[in-house]
Amino acid sequence: MGFLTPWFLAGAAAVGLPVYVHLLRQYQQTPIKFSSLMFFERRTQSSVKHRRLKYLLLFALRALFILLLVLAFSRPYISTSGAVSVNSAKTVVFAVDNSLSMRRGGAFAKAKQQALDEIGKLSEADRGQVVTFGGPAKLVTDMTGDKQILRAAVSALEPGDDTSSYAEIARVLRSTSEGYKTNIEAHVFTDLQKSSLPASFADLRLNDGTKLNVHNVGEGPIPNWTIEAVDAPRRVFDTKKVRTLATIASYGGDMATRTVSLVANGKTVETKQVKLTPGGRAVAEFLTLDVPYGLTKCEVRIDSADAFPQDDHWFFSVERADPKPALLLHSANDSASTLYVKTALESATDAAFTVDSRTPDQAASADISKFAFAILADPGPLPKSLEDSLEKIVRAGGSILVSLGRYATPGRNIPVAGFPVTQIHTITGEEAIQTVAQIDSSYPAFSISSARGSANWDSVQIFQYAKIQTPAESPETRVAARLANGLPLFVDRKVGEGHVLVFASAFDNIANNLPLQPIWLPFLEQTTHEMGGVGSGRGAYRVGSFVELRSVRERNVPVEILGPDGKRMMSLSESARATNYQFPSEGFFEIRRANGRQELAAVNADRRESDFSVVPAETVELWKNTGIASNATGATSASSNTREVKSELWWWVLALLAMLAIAESVLGNRHLAGKETA
Length: 678
Description:
Layout: E1 2-3, H1 16-24, H2 56-73, E2 76-85, E3 91-96, H3 107-120, E4 127-132, E5 138-139, H4 147-155, H5 166-180, E6 184-190, E7 210-216, E8 224-231, E9 235-236, E10 244-251, E11 256-264, E12 267-276, E13 281-286, E14 294-302, E15 313-320, E16 324-330, H6 336-346, E17 353-358, H7 360-364, E18 374-377, H8 384-395, E19 399-403, E20 421-426, E21 434-439, H9 444-449, E22 461-462, E23 464-468, E24 477-483, E25 488-495, E26 498-503, H10 520-531, E27 540-542, E28 546-548, E29 560-562, H11 572-577, E30 580-582, E31 587-592, E32 598-604, H12 617-625, E33 640-648, H13 650-677
Parallel strand pairs: 3-4, 3-6, 6-7, 9-15, 16-17, 16-18, 18-19, 19-26, 27-32
Antiparallel strand pairs: 1-2, 2-33, 4-5, 8-10, 10-13, 11-12, 11-14, 14-15, 20-23, 21-22, 21-24, 24-25, 25-26, 28-30, 29-31, 31-32
Helix pairs in contact: 2-13, 3-4
């Protein structure tokens, strides 16, 4: 026996109340008037008679009433244990695979029908829950004994475009077992794709007492050809310099020839034929992409010749635009910086900018507001009017990149940035050459450039650099790279709505060897793309992946997303607060950002769903065995389950309280009547 709320037992101290009523309050005397007590001696009166309890039965009833009342609030219970048939009271999870591969033939319809059949086998005492795991596992219903709710949930399920994961459903089964503190029975309806297995078998572990039933609704491996990936430019500036590569993969089947088509806005641009060996891959190359200005929906297709046409296409988007003008300010005596910067920007495969090279005096009287950004390649002192114009542009949301070389003047502030150059230091004698030691890989210019092939910053050597006095790091000032001696090399400072980027060395082959290194082109390209509003947005995403909706400078400004059907994907409150968005399905999603820029995100399914190789039967058996309890006593078996049942007794106590209240009332009235008669 136990108590659910034992702290109420402290109320048993109230049993002293009947003692007070029966003992301390029973001794009463009628006052007698007397002339004077001055001649009487004061003494203590002791009477055993007055300390004896009267009406013992009534006292016992009242004391017992209080004790039972305390007992009722303590919620007493008794525990019983015994073997209960699992078939008479089961906790069941119905897990339905709704990934892309389940669209093949009638696999998903078969899975739903089998799930409905299993729900029909539940008894009145059973309870169940419907779960899907095509992508992150989702609880479709709560744990319920209502069969109608379970049937309705299964009937409403639809296949998705994401990939399945058996590790996900194993995690849900472990969580369910731990949450409900009971053995569970799981029915998993899936096509048993081998690609859904996790890298580690330990991720499939089930809790002891979990009975796993795997219903294979697939038809086994089938020959399948798919577009595995497409490498295409995000932006097009010259349609004759576009190179699109499509990788076609074969899963099973015989030697085959597939026709590959490049499609733009629903119109076929070009076709190729590729030969595929069983289990092999081939690449189709397209060397032109004639698309109109603006955003274009593009697609690569293969002729459908298998039982799974859902992966015979690959979506991507491109944006065609003219190169934007960019301003390059340089000293009249500096030709090296101009050569390296201009050549790098204009020699890119997709040159996004045309460079207008000028000295500060030449730019002082020009309208510089038309330029997408400005690069100040160690130009020396600037005319006051030019510096004011640059600051106005930056505060309005523009960006400039400043490099500091031998023409920088110690003691003067860096244009627009506002912090001073304290010294121009040149490596001499046996002093160690400085290298780039610390890089903020989350900063776009370094995260992108450092990831391209073998290009990295390890081989960059700095022979001359400016010592700059930067403010403390804050949301307005960010040091993205430092030298080996700890001094800042690359600083991003927010000024107004725009940014000033400071490189504490020159863009030539004298102050450093950066322009001669493979990292130079991707670094400058990515930096200028960010400055010029081109950005690093991808043209293709995977179902279930995320896209960042706003940068730091675009906080609390709504971002609108339109789905493939043209409907808004987020509410107004979500569009103002959300920092990212997860793509739920295939198709084209239009993103309208706060700064007026529009993007077209192409979303494709994970191509792991295209491989219909089946999980070996022995692996399935091993997975099932992880849920068998390792209990030497055999207390838990397939047919019975020992459970502890707590039976509460409070309602019995309340019944006794009611009877005691009646008895106390009757007996109390009798004693009261007898006293009045006396």
